[in-house]
Structure formats: structure tokens, C-alpha cells
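hey so i finally got around to running the thing on that chain from the lab meeting. sorry it took forever, my laptop kept dying and i had to restart like 3 times. anyway pasting the input first so we r on the same page abt which one it is
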Amino acid sequence: MIRVGLALVLGLACGIVLALFASADSALVSQAVSIAEPVGTIWVNAIRMTVIPLIVPLLIVGVAGTGSPRRIGGLGLRSFGLFFVMLTGVAVTTALLAPPLIHFLSLDPASTAALRDSAHLTLPPAEALSFRSWLISLIPVNPIKAAADGALLPIVLFTLLYAFALAGVGEEARASQIRLFRGISEAMLKMVRWVLLVAPIGIFALALVLGTRLGPSAVKALGFFIGLTVLIHAVMLAVLYLVVGAFGRVSIWRFARAVLPAQVVAFSSRSSLASLPALVEGARDELGLPPEITGFVLPLSVSVFKLSAAIDWALGGLFVAHLYGITLGATQIAMLAAGSVVLSASTPGIPSGGLLIQAPLYAAVGLPVEGLGILIAVDTIPDMIKTAMNVTADLGVATILGRSSRSEPPGMP
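ok and heres what got predicted. didnt touch it at all, straight out
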């Protein structure tokens, strides 16, 4: 990610310099942009081609790999129910609060229009963005066509239905398909890593175009987005402490002490999985949670529960829309929020994985997919607090679910 950050800075710097000297040599600027634009587009297209082939096997393995929905048991069902409630609450809150906050960022309309004209943008028809049409489209008449069209939510719903059906068939038939889809997901993850290896080249090209179109205001825009992202996550993190204290029947100070080591690991490594040992230790030693919580709920939460997605998807989409001078309607914002709730469980365990799988959703709501490249480039700093928030939510869920059987650890008051 250091290379990506350097590519972003260098690309912005070159683009701003070109913008400042555009009047002196407009031909040079046009030539530079004409070279950079295809490079950035090719990299974004490489991301888009991997998304659906990656999400489908990940969801199937994640759901059907348990063997049977009954094996998840009541604790698993309560876990998923709590995941859904928390994701929905945060997504709705973000969808309501983010639009007015984004408008505090002022950009030159002419610059945003120039940036919009440079994007490969296909606006869906107005009828397709109505709530009625969106609701009907969730059940695809032809799943193969939906996949070819990049219709992400219908494919996810079809995949979930297929995965639950597969979980209920015989062991032999299920095991063979699970092996197949697990192999596909591993191959697709390797392909995504290849795409990320050349990310500095794609990010440089996208940043150069951004700097050329927006000039020095590009730095202000990205700084504003980073600051706003950190601020909203910090506020939601504080609310999360209050929720856990109220519903988990534990003092906020005690919960904060239990989760602090995991937060330190998360902040430094940007990996929820790396924080799991510290989460287990805090849950067991500080909070006295029972073995079924530390051995089942925590690993499950770390694997599939990404509470920060409920903030990032709507906030990032609104920022990209503002950057390109595009107005998102209520249905489009709702689609971004709904996507964060439904798709966050399929986020691949790679840097900026949550951003990578949003490409079809951006296309569906009429946002330039090139904007995701900019979000990936500036994700390093926000991702630290995002990961810290995710592991806090993981332990929060475990605390709430374990409240009825919590035992006091030795030496605790």
C-alpha cells in the first residue's frame, strides 16, 4: 500500500503541474491525459472482471460449507441476526447523515464537469433507478444474463438461495461442489492479487487525470474525504461502546480494556484476522465469556462481519458522486446502503477488498467506476480505523450474545 500511496501523490502532483501549465502548452496536457486515461481504464476493467466470479464462490462456500443450516444452530442464527441489525442501523444512519456532510466540500463546477466528461460513464435509464424497478430486478429472470450485465444484488440473492439449497443436499454432492467453488475462489483471489500488483500504475494514471481536471483542489478534496471518513468512524465507534454497554450488560470501561489489545493489532496490521488471538484473550480473561462464544462467535464475526462497510459504501459513493458532479437520488443511495448490508460478508480478505467488490454496484447506480481507484489509493489511513472499528464490533457482538452466560473471570470485581 506504500507503493499505491506514492503513486497517488506522484500522479496528483504531475496532474496539478500539468493543470497549472495547461494554458502554456495545452497540446502537452491533452497528450498526457490521452495516454493516462486508457491505462487507468484498463486497470479498473481488470478489477471489474474479477468481482462476480469472486463473490459467487465465496458466498457459496461460506454458507453451504457449514454442511447444513441446522449445524449453525441457534447461536449462529442469533449472530447473523445481530450482524444484520447492526449493519442496517449503521447503513441507514450513514445514508441520512453523509449527504449533507459531503456538501461541505466545495468544488469548481467546471472542474467537476471536466472530470465527469473524462470518465467512462454509462447512466442507467431513470426508470431503472425507481424503487419499483429496483425491487423487481432483485429476482433475476435469467441469472446468467444478470451476471453478464454486472447486476450484483440479483446475483447475490440468487447465489444465497443456491447456497442454502446446496447446504441441504446429500453430503457427497455437497462436498464435491464445495471443493469446486473453494478452488475457484482461491484462483480468483490469486487473480485479484495480480491486479493489485500493478495497482500503482493504474492509480498513478487515475490520479494524474484527477489532478489535471481538478488542479490543486484535488488535494483538498481527498484530504476532506479522509478526515470525514475518520470522523464518522470515530463517532460510530463511540456509539458502539454505548450499545455494548447497554445491551451487553458490561461496563464500558471493562469492555474498552478487553478490546484495546485487539484494536492495537488491528490499527497496526489493518487485519481483523490478525486480531483474533487478542480478541479471544480479551473475551475470555477480561469479560469471562463462555467457550461457545470465544470458539464460535468470534471466529465467525471476524470472518464475515464488517461493520465499517455500512459506513464506507454510502460515504465513498457520495464522495465520488460529488467529485464528478453527479447527483445521487434517494434510490441510488439506498442501493449503496443495501449493498453494504448484503455484500459485506463476501468481502475478500485482501487490502481494500470491500472497495474492489463495489464496481458492479457503481455501474448500476450510474457512478464512474474510476472513482473506486481513487478510493483505493487513499484507503491506507482510513483503513486503520475501519479495522479497529470492525474488531470492536466483533467483540461487541460476542459480548451481547454472551451476556446471559457470562461468568466472572478470576480476580474480577
